[in-house]
Amino acid sequence: MRRALSGSLSAAGAASPRPRLAHRRERLSLAPRLRPSLEQRPLVPPSAPSQRARGSRWHSGGAASAPQLTRREQDRLAARAFIVERGYTPEVAEGVVAALSAPGSGVSPGGLLDMVKMMGGRPEIGEDAGLDPLAKSVELELARQRGREVIHFTFVPPGGGDPIACEGLAGMSLKDVAEYGDGDGARVLAEFLECACSGVMACSTCQVYVHPRWSAKVGEPGDAEVDMLELAHEPRDSSRLGCQLKLAPELEGLQIEIPGGANNMFDDLTSHKVVVERT
Ligand code: FES
């Protein structure tokens, strides 16, 4: 579903400008390797005397001595603490560390803390260099493991054509599916939903048309969403912002359509308006 984690990490050193429409959105490929890596592994050293075997790294010679952590273990704990400080749950932090520790991740032994710091970017200026997408992927994987409900929907691509099947977990927005979802459908969706403002309702590039059959179940947009939709490309009464439309059990089978273009009002505020024709 996503590109290899090692690829994402190699690109993690720089701030990540949002990809333009029609460029396949690059994703973090965690699912295949995250599942095994998320298996519970102890974060603290064993403390039972029987485990302090002679010659073990836990054995420091004194009965009351604190266990001696190896540099790798210290690095792992420090990386985990850094992620928690950034506001993620300890469970997610451990999942991120596990993913970065997996064989083939490209992270050198003892380099976890440096890597998560680099991926964390500079939050004081709103910059993230890969930590947030990785944490999101971990959150979704954890949710999946807990059996959160999968919602199936279809979308008609710009210009028409056969509906494309897609799926996401209950609670995910269409933007979340485009950015972090599984499967070919999510990959194609990502090509059309640019989501230039990252979901703060400032771009309208995530506009979708909801099939009239589903309008009542989807519900009405809020005032702020309506304001942004008025600036969207060829809005309709059935328009919704994909960053605000969240999947729910009652939306199983939802049908949407992707508009033939997008007005990027976010770039309009920051530089100049970019109108992208999709067809
Ligand atoms: S992502 Fe910008 S308005 Fe939805």
Automatic annotation (TrEMBL):
Keywords: 2Fe-2S, Iron, Iron-sulfur, Metal-binding. InterPro entries: 2Fe-2S_ferredoxin-like_sf (IPR036010), 2Fe-2S_ferredoxin-type (IPR001041), Adrenodoxin-like (IPR001055), Beta-grasp_dom_sf (IPR012675). Residues 1-19, 29-39 have a biased composition (Low complexity). The keyword Metal-binding applies. Residues 1-71 are annotated as: Disordered. PANTHER family: 2FE-2S FERREDOXIN-TYPE DOMAIN-CONTAINING PROTEIN, FERREDOXIN/ADRENODOXIN. This is 2Fe-2S ferredoxin-type domain-containing protein.
